[in-house]
Structure formats: C-alpha cells, structure tokens
Amino acid sequence: MIEKYKKFLLVFVGLFFCASVIYTGGFIWANTLENGTSGFYFTKNFLLENTKDRPRIIFESGSNSQHSINSLMVERELGLLTLNLGYNGGYQLYLRLYRLTKHLHNKDIVILPLEYTYYARKDINLDTVILDELVSYGKFHFNALPFYKKLSVIAQMNLNQNFKLLKNAYRYIKHKLFGSSFNFDSKEKINDLLFSGERGDINYTILLNSGIDLSKQDDNVGLDCQEYISMFGDEINPGFTNDLKLLQKISKETGARFIFTYPALAGDGCYDFSTPKGGKLKALIEQIKPLVESYGFLFIGNPFDSYFPNNMLNTYWHIDEKARDIRTKRLIEELKKTGLFNTNK
Fold it and tell me: What are the φ and ψ backbone dihedral angles of 259, each rounded to 5 degrees?
C-alpha cells in the first residue's frame, strides 16, 4: 500500500512539474505575440526600439515627465534626439530599467526625474493595474525581464490576466491559420513618426479641448499634495539601493550615462516643510541626492526648479503646458552645466 502511494505521489509531482513548465513556457511565448495594441505606450516603445542608430537623450520616470518635458525644446537646445518615456508611476523601477537595458548604447544619456515614490516605495508585489498592463500594452516591460523575474511576475498573475493573454494567443493563432481579422501593432516608418514631431510628450491640445478645468483637478484619491508625494512612505526604502546597483550594472554594460533630477509638481503646500509631515518629507528629499551620488551618478537641480503653484496644475499634481516649458528651460540650463553636451555646434 505504501509503495502504491509513493508511486502516485511521484506521478503527481511529475505531472505537476510538466504542467508548470508548459504553462510558464506558454505564458512567456504568448506575451511575445502581437496583441493589436496602439496608443502612447506603444509609440514610446517603438521610438526607443527604432532610434538606436543615433545618440539620444531619454527621459524615463512616471507620468510627471510625460507632462513636464518639452522634448523638441531639449532637442533643439542640446542637439540630440530626445525621447520621453514617462508614464504611470505605478511601474516598479526595475521594470523600466530592464526594458531600457535592451535598447541603450554608449552615446545615450538617460535623465531620471523620478517621483518620490520610487525612492520610498517598499512594496514588492505589483498591483492589479500593472499586472493587467504587463499582458497587454505594457508587455515589452515583461518581455525584457530576466527569466527569474518573469517567474516572479507570473506567480502574481490572477485568472483574469491569464485568460486575457490566452485569448490574445487564440486570436493570433486563428489569424495565422485561417486569416481571420486581427489588429496588429502599427508599424509606422520611424522617420515619418519623428518628422511628425512625436517624441512621447503628452498632447496638451487634447486635454485643453476636453473642456475640463484642469486647475481644479487636484483631488487624487482624497490626498493633499504632501500625502500624495509620500503615499508609499516618507523614508528611503533600503531596496532602492538594489535599483542603484542595477543602474551601475546597466551603465557599465551599455556605456549609457544616467542623470537624476527632481520630479515636476504643481499644487498647494507640496514643499511646506514647516509641519511635522513636511519635516519628514524634507528629511526624505535631503537623503536622496547624497545616496544617488554615492553610487557615482549625477544629480542636478533642486526641488523648487520644477515646483509650480496651483494655478499651473494639470491633473494629479502634474503641471500644465506653460509650466512644462518653464521647467524644460530650467532643466536645459542644468544639463548644460554638466559638460556632457556639445552646445557650440
């Protein structure tokens, strides 16, 4: 009887192992398939992938960069193609960095105006929104991960996310076998896209034509500005040092340079350090620059270079178009001081 149970256990473990291997392999393969996505996520990634033949300035962070950088202005002043990859600060920094690694070279300069959450966030698991995106229009972040990181992400996926991926794989295979309709990722000619002025910046015209009073859109999940800044903590997360070590590795392997600066904000009292809450925020901000510099990276500017009053608010403490251009001009001057740009051409 005992031998019978041993045999059953071995068969069960063997089948479970085989099923896990098939599932994992199938998941990774299915996420490489085209899924008919479009929009600014795809456009930013398309620009990153298809401009590797030239030196570039690349802005990478959450959505504060998307709203606060005039890439064409930077391009004109500093003489290098400038891309804006900023969106959704919910993405863990390692997801951004591994995606970057695959497309950087030794003439690239990456600017990191990271939101304060990137320095303080302690959570390891990804939230549902990010997991949903990793099997749809943010799939290139997942696909760039090393295998062990992919396993960690797969373990966090729920049934709905798995079903979404399998549904896309079914549609893709059906198209290949029977010619059924399928919306492929648009493959625009890169020169046409660049000529149009597309660099990944937010389109303010659409926002302004929406009829929304952007100056009143300052209620983000019921938090004031300081609460929003420190919603994931008000102390440096020791895990951030792992991100800095990964950056060192990427810089060494690719030859790309990385420059940190402060994020753009608009709102009332964001940097009011006179309150107990403000005092904690000040302590967090004062720790960031020395830590980053201790790992050999430049950190330029000061927080007030990119801080604007409430009447220059866009949404969620983003800045409006006028503030964007002011912030960009200030940042250009700071970048010129680094000596990394030949502005005498």
Answer: -130, 125
